[in-house]
Amino acid sequence: MRQIRSKAYRKLMAMYCTSFGFRQPYQVLVDSEMCETAVSQKIDLLARMESVLVGSVKMMITQCCIHELYIQGKSHQPAVDLAKSFERRKCNHKEAIPGNECIASVMGETNQHRYAVATQSHPLRVNLRAIPGVPIVHINRSVMVLEPASDATLQSKQRAEKDALGPSTSEKAMLNAVTPQVEPVVKRKKAPKGPNPLSVKKKVPKGTVPVTTRVEKADVRSKRKREEADDVDGASVEAQPKPKRRRRHKAASRLAERSN
Ligand SMILES: [Zn+2]
């Protein structure tokens, strides 16, 4: 077997082990045609199966499949002998049914017993691809081939991985137990809205002189100016502001004294 294919098969079987619970020795259901092909092409079925599945293998054959070989007569004796060396899988079909149908019934819908299937029947292989987690083997021109994972297998694997990211069943149970105890979030009542307290003028207690703000001072100044203007027009003299005192320079005052 080529190195690259061996690596791919190893990886594929590791996926069947981690995602679908396969364990060695892998149980392989073999159909009657596979037995005949192995004999006619002188293929060591067990050895080749162990190399393709990369691990120890337990070969199995159903009652109906071995019955198919019995009824074909003496010429098929080597295939019967090979099949007899495999473990017999009870299928409980009272009357033998075709091997394909027997294997399909043993596999069920979920392959709960984790079988790999070695079959030369193309229709059976197509049917098996619909079941997630079935390693399918066939012989193509004396080369034993393990099929790549089917779409059903890949989808099931992805679903399992997605579930693994979320809480596990035990964690979910814990969450459910905890959730009802959590108190409902109480909405904090907001205080009635008023003007911004920083922009409101402070209330002045009665009997105290209000502290004038800068704005008020400006008002006073402008009021005074208006009054001065009124005085010029010949209004009340009492309201006239005091003349500003000018500071004289000492030198200037001395000069004035001398001249006096
Ligand atoms: Zn059967």
From TrEMBL:
Gene Ontology BP terms: rRNA processing
Gene3D superfamilies: 5'-nuclease
Keyword Nucleus: yes
Main localisation: nucleus
The organism's place on the tree of life at top rank: Eukaryota
GO cellular component, one term: small-subunit processome
Identification of the protein by name: U three protein 23
Organism, scientific name: Russula ochroleuca
